[in-house]
Task: inverse folding
């Protein structure tokens, strides 16, 4: 038994090393010059200089990019929770036609982005919506099927009797929603909100396609993508920018881990 | 509280406008010649004739198949090893390992791609390039596998978490009995763990096939389908045909072939999920 556990530890520690080493290298190399990165990426920099971060902030318009990323992430999370939450409730309480709608949503959930990307882009371009607003609308639309199904799986667990009791006690719809349903379903909403927030922040294809000609509205990811296309790019600075974009996601994940995992696993094999 | 169908309307309208209408339009545009600015002109099956007679298309499809084969095996094996070993360590350590394995998954694809591209695969200074004395991303025979490896680094930990959650559902007495019978770790895996998490495994394999035919970010970010066309897949080909060469009709036609290839696993998925009453 002891030997058996020793093997498990060795395997797991090796895998953890495999997962963490590149992340550590990202942080380490964000403090080095381009030359230092290439001569030995494993070396600890002699003096930790923040000049890469200063330069990233100055020359890559990172501040605006981060603000745009935050707007996209938070707006799409909030809107998805509001619009999708409403639908998820109706489905959890089995209004007429619920089973058809659920099947429809599962079908939509499997539709690939590329089957709709071309008409969406042309259409939004004509409407003058190749900006952050357009990206938010598309992002919300695309994430609704998954979000509704996931939210519903949380909401069906709330017994209808609780609401009826509150109704008898004289609570109105608004109070029932804010004082009873929301507190109980909080973890469900938090899960869906978080997944959408992280998804919006990390989004690549839609923001790249829609914001290519609109630098003022580009998210941090798009800005860094545009700057880092060449092997001759200033890598120290780009690594610093990448750390700035990635770190919030790692922090959010570590804080809300439980909800995050519950949503990912739930989305993977139960609705 | 009164629940009515009207609560579904905002969602259904938005889904209809963003997903359904554009999907139907793509199918229509596939039969047209269109540059995205003028009116599309109907040309029948000509786009498809052009695509199917082009050897590049079949090469690209083959790349998608190679990608699928990689993701059906490599990350699955890693995740299985991790998930079954997680069973043998104390609860606290298990939680820490699961968290660590999931960190790469929450990083933006751009961050993961650039990190590996520069630190490990730079054509001259990359760590892996130096060790093997071979530019994996830059040579046509290895580029697709190198990108798959990078994508896998961020992906396997998620699978490990999924499998670990499935293993947690297994009744622990099975393991007790296996231990008392003196089963070794391979026997435990073969006779207890694997059969018990088989439904989850099959579900993830089906989704892997679907996702593999749609893969885009990592390939587009790292090589844009190059060098030459060595790492081109259906999604990058669609994207470039439409947005780089402004052939929106032909791009739409290629996009519809993605659906054709993915439809078999998608149908299987929908069938499984409905048969099990929404649980896979």
Result:
């Amino acid at each position: 038994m002891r030997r058996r556990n020793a093997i498990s530890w060795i395997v797991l520690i090796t895998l953890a090393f495999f997962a963490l080493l590149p992340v550590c290298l990202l942080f380490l190399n964000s403090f080095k010059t381009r030359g230092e990165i290439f001569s030995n990426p494993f070396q600890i920099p002699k003096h930790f200089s923040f000049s890469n971060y200063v330069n990233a902030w100055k020359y890559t318009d990172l501040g605006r990019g981060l603000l745009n990323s935050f707007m996209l992430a938070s707006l799409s999370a909030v809107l998805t929770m509001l619009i999708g939450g409403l639908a998820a409730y109706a489905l959890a309480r089995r209004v007429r036609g619920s089973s058809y709608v659920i099947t429809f949503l599962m079908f939509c959930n499997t539709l690939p982005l590329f089957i709709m990307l071309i008409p969406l882009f042309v259409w939004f371009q004509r409407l003058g919506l190749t900006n952050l607003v357009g990206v938010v609308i598309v992002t919300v639309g695309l994430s609704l099927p998954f979000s509704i199904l996931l939210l519903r799986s949380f909401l069906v667990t709330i017994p209808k009797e609780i609401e009826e009791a509150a109704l008898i006690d004289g609570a109105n719809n608004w109070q029932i929603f804010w004082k009873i349903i929301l507190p109980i379903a909080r973890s469900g909403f938090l899960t869906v909100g978080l997944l959408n927030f992280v998804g919006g922040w990390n989004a690549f294809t839609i923001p790249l396609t829609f914001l290519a000609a609109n630098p003022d509205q580009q998210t941090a990811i798009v800005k860094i993508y545009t700057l880092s296309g060449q092997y001759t790019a200033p890598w120290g600075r780009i690594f610093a920018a990448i750390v700035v974009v990635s770190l919030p996601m790692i922090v959010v994940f570590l804080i809300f881990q439980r909800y995050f995992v519950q949503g990912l696993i739930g989305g993977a094999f139960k609705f | 509280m009164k629940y009515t169908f009207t609560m579904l309307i905002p969602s259904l309208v938005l889904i209809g406008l963003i997903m359904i209408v554009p999907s139907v339009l793509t199918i229509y545009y596939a039969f047209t010649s269109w540059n995205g600015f003028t009116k599309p002109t109907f040309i029948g099956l000509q786009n498809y004739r052009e695509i199917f007679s082009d050897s590049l298309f079949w090469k690209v499809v083959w790349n998608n198949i190679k990608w699928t084969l990689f993701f059906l095996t490599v990350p699955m094996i890693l995740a299985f090893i991790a998930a079954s070993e997680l069973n043998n360590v104390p609860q606290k350590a298990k939680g820490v390992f699961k968290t660590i394995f999931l960190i790469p998954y929450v990083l933006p694809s751009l961050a993961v791609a650039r990190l590996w591209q520069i630190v490990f695969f730079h054509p001259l200074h990359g760590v892996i390039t130096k060790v093997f004395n071979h530019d994996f991303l830059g040579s046509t025979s290895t580029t697709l596998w190198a990108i798959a490896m990078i994508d896998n680094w961020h992906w396997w930990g998620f699978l490990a978490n999924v499998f670990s959650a499935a293993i947690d559902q297994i009744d622990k007495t099975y393991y007790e009995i296996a231990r008392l019978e003196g089963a070794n770790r391979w026997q435990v895996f073969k006779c207890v763990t694997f059969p018990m998490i088989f439904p989850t495994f099959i579900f993830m394999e089906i989704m892997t096939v679907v996702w593999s035919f749609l893969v885009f970010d990592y390939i587009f970010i790292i090589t844009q389908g190059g060098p030459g066309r060595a790492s081109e897949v259906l999604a990058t080909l669609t994207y470039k045909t439409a947005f780089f060469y402004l052939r929106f009709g032909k791009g739409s036609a290629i996009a519809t072939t993605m659906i054709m290839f993915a439809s078999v696993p998608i149908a299987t998925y929908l069938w499984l999920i409905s048969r099990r009453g929404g649980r896979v």
